[in-house]
Write a structure and sequence with these properties.
Shape: globular
Number of domains: 2
Bound molecules: tryptophanyl-5'AMP
CATH architecture of the largest domain: 3-Layer(aba) Sandwich
Strand content: 5-15%
CATH class of the largest domain: Alpha Beta
Order of helices and strands: EHEHHEHHHHEHEHHHHH
């Protein structure tokens, strides 16, 4: 079978309610790999605590993110779904790789710079070393392919460099991963400020459509979305508001831009925004229904977490044993 032994890894932080950016840029694309690859999809709770979290909310969102994985079509029988803090090897490898990652490399990470600005009162060491933990997530499983949105490209590039350097210094140890950035939905923008990424931590709730938003909220948010001057539904990168809405509509309907332009020829932005809202709400309705069903059964979600953690820990242990030996630690059997 094609790609039988190839490994996929990706992760989502349970640091806020998930958005249609997370859905279109990442989670929706995950299930396509389940048949042909060995897939690990992780709820990266250790990453989330680089920003202050309310413990009860973090716990709830961890269940919710796992439930959303399943609701978005990831079958726990075909994918290893797990929570990062349940597999301690992520932290262990992160320390070891941190010792061969340079201060200068981490200083160049744009997400670190952005987040330090946003959380000026809490520029902690974890925020700085975050990309090393992300590299460890990926390299622990000998990952071939990492499906993510384009905002993670720089972190991925660093993970590759960390792997290449380690292999060079210590001998072949890690698979060097490639990113898989799907053209569709790779960067969904804010509805109120379409030159900025739609982000789950945006304090302006009108800027963000959440996967779990009820239909009337979704319609309202799209109705109020910022568009550019003009009234024609035509794709133009210099008009980021309408370009973003067209890209969202394209993702949800599968229609190409020229088809969308023909569909709304002679009709104004109002009609178009209503159609984008309808398409989004229709696509999310089955996900929301399945999510509610799953959240009512925490016992089931915990059984998925347990089984996932066991499978992941087994795979991680193989890499850790190799890394320990390479670095000169005594690997007790
Ligand atoms: P996170 O939790 O911010 O986002 C999860 C996934 O959603 C994608 N994404 C977007 N895609 C398109 N448009 C947007 N507006 C948008 N916003 C978010 C992200 O690119 C990501 O794929 N550091 C990662 C989590 C992580 C990880 C990993 C990912 C930790 N370890 C290992 C892959 C492999 C993050 O903060 O994602």
């Amino acid at each position: 079978m094609l790609g039988e032994n190839k490994v996929i890894f990706s992760g989502v932080q349970p640091s806020g309610n998930l958005t249609i950016g997370n859905y279109l840029g990442a989670i929706r694309n995950f299930s396509a790999f389940s048949e042909e690859y060995r897939c690990f999809y992780c709820v990266v709770d250790l990453h989330a605590v680089t920003v202050r979290q309310v413990p009860a909310e973090l716990r709830r969102r961890t269940y919710e993110t796992l439930a959303l994985y399943i609701a978005c079509g990831l079958d726990p029988e075909k994918n290893t779904l797990f929570v990062q803090s349940h597999v301690p090897a992520h932290c262990e490898l992160s320390w070891m790789l941190g010792c061969s990652t340079m201060f200068g490399e981490l200083s160049r990470m744009t997400q670190f710079k952005d987040k330090s600005q946003k959380h000026a009162d809490n520029i902690n060491a974890g925020l700085f070393t975050y990309p090393v933990l992300m590299a460890s997530d990926i390299l622990l499983y000998q990952t071939d392919l990492v499906p993510v949105g384009i905002d993670q490209k720089q972190h991925l590039e660093l993970a590759r460099n960390i792997a290449i350097r380690f292999n060079h210094l210590m001998g072949d140890t890690f698979t060097v991963p490639d990113g898989y950035i799907s053209k569709d939905g790779m960067k969904i923008m804010s509805l109120t400020e379409p030159t900025a990424k739609m982000s789950k931590s945006d304090p302006n709730k009108n800027a963000v459509v959440y996967i779990l938003d009820p239909k009337d909220e979704i319609l309202r948010k799209f109705r109020r979305a910022v568009t550019d001057s003009g009234s024609e539904v035509r794709y133009d990168e210099d008009r980021p508001g309408i370009a973003n809405l067209m890209s969202i509509y394209r993702c949800f309907t599968g229609k190409e831009y020229d088809e969308i332009e023909r569909e709304f020829d002679g009709r104004g932005y109002g009609d178009f925004k209503a159609a984008v809202g309808e398409a989004c709400a229709d696509a999310l309705a089955p996900v929301q229904a399945e999510f509610s069903r799953l959240m009512a059964d925490k016992g089931y979600l915990e059984s998925v977490m347990k089984a996932g953690a066991e499978t992941a820990a087994r795979a991680a242990a193989r890499t850790m044993s190799k890394v320990r030996r390479r670095l000169g630690f005594i690997d007790l059997k």
